[in-house]
Design a protein that fits this description.
360 residues; alpha+beta; Rossmann fold; 6-stranded mixed sheet; 5-stranded antiparallel sheet; 36% strand; globular; cell membrane; iron transport; iron; ABC-type quaternary ammonium compound transporting activity; ABC-type quaternary amine transporter
Length: 360
């Protein structure tokens, strides 16, 4: 069942087009991440779904009910939507229990049972129930904000970059706890983010926005491995683009003869290679011996390259490589325990098939 259906929704602010015909379906009980660069229309879409404004055109349906369309605009308070803004927006004069209970019937607020249930659901200790927002960490505040959004049992929860103000370590743990709480509660959620890692690791479905449109939606793995366009490829993860000539399922390029995923591209093409696909061999001995051994074993010897720079991140590193044949520079991502030195001569090969786009 589809919990949310957005069809051809448009919105302009004066001469600026924010949404240019957005289509999106959010399956019931799933977390869908809408990601894209700043200014692409993500937050505008979220606010229109919430009912904080009306589109200029199109329709919005919750399940089988139309909440916006020709001649109809259901007010925000009747849409049964929970909303979690970027900063949580807790009431500073109210404690945790009162913040969670806001919007509940008076009897439920007095009993406090729902607040206690939700504190447990979002992974917070009951001892925090009577603390005020300024006595909580940023991550705790965001979990309380989610609990408040879940308290009235909404049909849909909307999250507007709720983790953007947190530091990296706290952001990851808070995001995982929030999404886990949503799944345990079987709540449908729409998460707006510009963080690719967040969308890919947390969501059941990702929808990439560009210039006011959804340009691709689907499982995160599909979007990463088989992006619909170079725009999607470049935004969702690091990308290396290499010109090539495609014949059937094989591409000839500066990185050698590469296998191409199923597609209709033939002739001049632009290949997408992910940095982790680029294998760097022979770093320990300058490349020659490793390459000769690979060739004797019938493996892919790859092409010769010079290591020009290495950026170390602990668990892995990026390696800048200048290919001998063309002088083209490409970036590889390698394990942190297998680092070549700048100036080393290495062999470079590509693991797995690549995606081909028609040459621009």
């Amino acid at each position: 069942m589809t919990a949310l259906t957005v069809s051809q929704v448009t919105k302009s602010f004066g001469a600026t087009t924010a949404l240019a015909g957005v289509d999106l379906q959010v399956p019931d009980g799933t977390v869908t991440a809408v990601l894209g660069p700043s200014g692409c229309g993500k937050t505008t879409l979220l606010r229109l779904v919430a009912g904080f404004g009306d589109p200029d055109g199109g329709t919005i349906d919750f399940g089988g009910e139309r909440v916006f369309g020709p001649g109809r605009s259901l007010p925000a308070q009747r849409r049964r939507v929970g909303y979690v803004p970027q900063e949580g927006a807790l009431f500073p004069h109210a404690d945790v229990t009162a913040n969670i209970g806001f919007g509940l019937p008076r009897a439920d607020r007095r009993a406090g049972r729902r607040a206690a249930e939700l504190l447990d659901l979002v992974g917070l200790d009951a001892s925090l129930a009577h603390r005020f927002p300024h006595q909580l960490s940023g991550g705790q505040q965001q979990r309380v904000a989610l609990a408040r959004a879940l308290a009235p049992r909404p049909s849909l929860v909307l999250l507007d970059e709720p983790f953007s103000s947190l530091d990296a370590a706290l952001r990851l743990s808070t995001a995982r706890a929030v999404v886990e709480a949503l799944r345990i509660n079987r709540t449908t959620a729409l998460l707006v983010t510009h963080d690719q890692n967040e969308a890919l690791s947390l969501a059941d479905q990702a929808a990439v926005m560009s210039a006011g449109r959804i340009v691709q939606a689907g499982p995160p793995q599909e979007i990463y491995r088989a992006p619909a366009s170079p725009v999607v490829a470049a935004f969702v993860g690091a990308a290396v683009f290499v010109p090539a000539v495609v014949t059937g399922r094989t591409a000839s390029c500066d990185l050698g003869e590469l296998a191409v995923r199923t597609g209709s591209v033939e002739g001049a093409a632009r290949l997408l290679v992910r940095p982790e696909q680029i294998r760097v061999d022979g770093a320990a001995d300058g490349g020659g011996a490793a390459a000769e051994e690979d060739a004797r074993d019938g493996g892919q010897a790859g092409v010769a390259a010079l290591v020009t720079a290495v950026s170390y991140f602990g668990h892995d590193a990026t390696v800048q490589l200048r290919l001998d044949g063309s002088g083209r520079t490409v970036t590889a991502r390698v394990p942190g325990n297998r680092l070549p030195e700048p100036g080393a001569r290495v062999r470079v090969a590509v693991d797995g098939p690549v995606t081909a786009f028609t040459a621009a």
